[in-house]
Amino acid sequence: MAKGKYTKITGEQNGNARLTPELVREIRELHAQGASANALTEAYGLSKCAMRELLDYRSWRHVV
Q1: Is position 42 within any domain?
Q2: Greatest CA separation found in the chain?
Q3: Which burial class, exposed, middle or buried, applies to 28 when counting CB atoms under 10 A from its CB (0-12, 13-18, 19+)?
Q4: What is the pTM of this model?
Q5: Which domain holds residue 59?
Q6: Is residue 6 part of a domain?
Q7: Residue 10's pLDDT is what?
Q8: Residues 6+ away with beta carbon under 8 Å from 41
Q9: Is residue 28 part of a domain?
Q10: Does 13 fall in a domain?
Q11: How far apart are CA 43 and CA 57, in angstroms?
Q12: Are 19 and 60 in contact (CB under 8 A)?
């Protein structure tokens, strides 16, 4: 690999990922049906910041 170049690891390829694409879709669908972000945060064990980024498509952007 060339100096200064790297491959960005996204989604479940990241070893620290707690979610899968299926869970991301499920969370987004539940939110669209009216579930609050706080309730989803507690149910899935994510931080409020991580949940907000997921719901705003700032993280897991590649999952539609």
Answers
A1: yes
A2: 47
A3: middle
A4: 0.79
A5: 19-64
A6: no
A7: 75
A8: 47, 48, 51
A9: yes
A10: no
A11: 19
A12: yes
Rounded to the nearest angstrom, the gap between the alpha carbon of residue 58 and the centroid of all alpha carbons in its chain is 8
What is the tally of structural domains in the chain?
1
Per-residue pLDDT of the chain (64 residues; tens, 9 = 90+): 567 777 777 777 776 778 899 999 999 999 999 999 999 999 999 999 999 999 999 998 989 8
Distance of CA 33 to the CA centre of its chain: 18
Please name the residues in contact with 10: beta carbons below 8 A apart, sequence gap of 6 or more.
62
Q: What is d(CA 1, CA 12) in angstroms, rounded to the nearest whole number?
A: 23
Compute the residue count for the chain: 64
Q: What is the pLDDT of residue 56?
A: 95
Q: What is the pLDDT of residue 30?
A: 97
H or E stretch at 53: helix 48-55
Q: With both helix axes pointing from N to C terminus, report the angle between 37-44 and 21-32 in degrees, rounded to the nearest 10.
A: 150
